[in-house]
Specification:
single chain, 111 residues, alpha+beta
């Protein structure tokens, strides 16, 4: 995964953002294996949905979850739930089944 360090993307509230498989990182942020794995999971999701559909789905799901969960909406998005639940498992992408994020649409949350 290509990393681009800068002070513009992402905003100060975030350490990094994955755009079309390229990781934009705030200057001064140390990228850990966990963060890299998290973003690699997002890259797999993007590829499955031909990138553009990933972003459309992500936006619509975030808006829907915003109504349901408020500030916690981001953490309830299926793409994020899959990535956060598996970002510490370095073998996850080796064994991951295609479209695994769909499981997180159905899986009950702790809320």
């Amino acid at each position: 995964m290509k990393l681009i360090y800068n002070n513009i993307i992402p905003t100060k509230d975030f350490a990094a953002i994955n755009l079309f498989g390229i990781l934009f990182v705030r200057k001064g942020i140390i990228i850990t294996k966990t963060i890299l794995n998290h973003e690699a999971i997002h890259s797999a999701q993007m590829k499955e949905l031909f990138y553009l559909l990933f972003y459309v789905w992500y936006l619509f799901e975030w808006i829907y979850k915003l109504v349901l969960y408020g500030k916690e909406a981001y953490f309830q998005i299926s793409f994020e739930r899959e990535a956060y639940e598996n970002d510490r498992n370095s073998d996850y992408l080796i064994h991951r089944k295609p479209y695994s994020f769909v499981y997180y649409l159905k899986k009950k949350t702790g809320n």
